[in-house]
Amino acid sequence: MFIRLKTSPISPRQAVQIVESYRIGTKSRQKILRHVGVAFNDREKDELVRLAKMIMKELEENRQPSLPAVGLDGSAEPCEQTVAKGHNVDLYECRHTDEIIDGFGDIVRHLFSRMGFAEIFGVSDRGRGRTNALFGCVLTCLAQPCSKRSTSRWLRAQAGIGIHVDRLYRMMTALEKRISKVQDIVARGTLQLYEHKVTLMLYDVTTLYFESFTDDGFRQSGWSKENKTKETQVVLALATTREGLPLWYEVFPGKKWEGHTLLESFDRFKEKMNPKETVIVADRAMFTADNLVKAEASGYSYVVGAKLKNQPKKLREMILKRQEYQTIPSIFGKKRATDEEDTFLVNVFPQEKARQLVVSWSKKRSLKDQKDRERLLERAKKLLGDQENVAGQALIKNSGTKRYLKIKNGKDAEYVLDEEKIATDAQWDGFHGVITNIPIIQKAGLIESDKSSRKSFSIRDIFSFYHSLWRIEESFRLNKTDLRIRPIRHRLEKRIRAHIAICYITYAIARQIEYQVHLQQKANMSFDRIRTALKDVKSAIMYDMETKKTYRLPKEMNSDAVKIYAALGQKRNHIPTEVASLRKYKNRILF
User: Fold this and answer.
1) Which of 4, 71, 325, 52 is closest to 192 using CA atoms?
2) What is the pLDDT of residues 321-375, one digit of tens each?
3) By the 8 A CB rule, do 168 and 148 touch?
4) Can you give the residue range of the structural domain that contains 394?
5) Which pTM was predicted?
6) What's the domain count of the chain?
7) Among the four residues 8, 180, 254, 424, which has the most C-beta atoms within 10 Å?
């Protein structure tokens, strides 16, 4: 078994295939076991080869004779058999008794097992029971996220799987003790795709609120990113690759300041990734002296957002001198409407301890900043009306509205427009900066990365790294909106942590589907599109009242579902079957 790159002299494309050699007499033949995908450039080729190595390893480990389907009672009797060609059924006597969604069961079970989640509780009878309960929660979270009680009802109604809600709660109690194992499994699965060499790690935090207003030590009232000022919350820290594949997560009490979460996560990162090969990207909230010193001491390179207005006065004056900047093409690598909007000005300012402040300016960002300020000014002027000032108690409690207002009279707390603040902010329109410890030199009028450095990235790469943070913001939206990780309805800390772990497993599976469909099928599918495609993979259950036989009629798959099945190496038989035991068929996806 080996990986073959198939090329054509008339096309730059390369097909990546897993091939096996065999002999017929004295002649050698080759058989394609899996067509992994087609690469249009070297980067895609490298990604497909890495994926092919992982798939080839799984094929070698799972190679064994096919066994008959085994029911829950341990019998080897198959739960269904293919209907022979020419088999006659009297449709007048048939009744449509049920409809089963097969898509989620087929795909989720495959990835749940392949990624190693079936190993969490072991292979004992109790372990298998907990594995099935966890699988049921993940299946429901992917298909129809809801409470654990509703999960039990959905599994019974839609998948025919009977798991009592008390079993789900007992599984969650056991899962809480194995969260580190869950984190290890997810990290291992992601790192295998990169051959354990992740160049870019995105890091950010968010808050998850409860429908509760009472602090209890773990659920706490804190600064909420969702403006839930009264509800209690916890803080979720997440690390992903540039493609959004999960690397790690941590959960902290609700009052934890996000700048301190990174320090506690460094040691965990070092266990999984080589710091000398990893660039950490984070937003400006992580811009603290302690975080940067810790990152440097651990051997990491980093790109973090910079607060330009908080720099020393002399440096601020240097930053504002745009005439000393150099011009580079768009850091996004795309042609825009005008060359002027597509141009970026950049400059590099040395900092202490080999750090450098890299600042860019663009007209497009300048116009956006100007419009944002005008919108806030319009709101403030509307509040003032025809008056020159307004009493403080009449203000709407909105930080944006207050931004360009100042107190005129401390005693009466009267507010007026702060013209000086408005003029100062206007100077900074279009500027954006990042702090990095990646060495950068200026050569022949161009800003380049130092080729002698252990990392070689251009100035465009550095800004591209920082703009990749949109991916982790999208990951938070996926967890909050599509997987409904919040509001959290659990009270006990162990249940809270287990609930987040279940959503994290589901998130990891969803990202694997997206990644492999994009890589192998060249299709960009959103999670909602994947969910819709799998929900449409169904089978109709027909009961013949005369012969007392039950038949399953698979529905034809839509084009998106075909791509998902192909990307994950799954096949769906579209030939009708006679179901010997409907209960066994519905439970065939369990472990």
Assistant:
1) 52
2) 988 888 877 666 554 444 455 568 888 888 877 888 999 998 888 999 999 988 8
3) yes
4) 313-449
5) 0.85
6) 2
7) 254
Closest CA to 415 of 375, 371, 381: 381
Report d(CA 179, CA 476) in Å as an integer.
Answer: 20
Residue 128 located in a structural domain? no
Q: Could you say which of 431, 449, 467 is where a domain stops?
A: 449
Q: Hey, what long-range contacts does 337-344 have (CB within 8 A, 24 or more apart)?
A: 344/463
The reply to whether 37 falls in a domain is yes
Annotate 469-504 with DSSP letters as a single string.
THHHHHHHHIIIIIS---SB---SHHHHHHHHHHHH
The candidate with the shortest Cα–Cα distance to 90, out of 567, 581, 551, is: 551
Residue 68 in domain: no
**How confident is the prediction for the chain on average, in pLDDT?**
84
Say if residues 218 and 177 touch (Cβ distance below 8 Å): no
Give Cα separations from 379 to 27, 400, 413 (angstroms). 81, 9, 19
Between CA 251 and CA 235 the distance in angstroms is 6
Distance, in Å, from the CA atom of 504 to the CA atom of 526, rounded to the nearest integer, reads 17
Residue 343: other Cβ atoms inside 10 A: 16
Q: Which of 19, 35, 62 is the last residue of a domain?
A: 62
- C-alpha 532/C-alpha 515 separation (Å) is 17
Residue 221 · residue 238 · CB < 8 Å? no
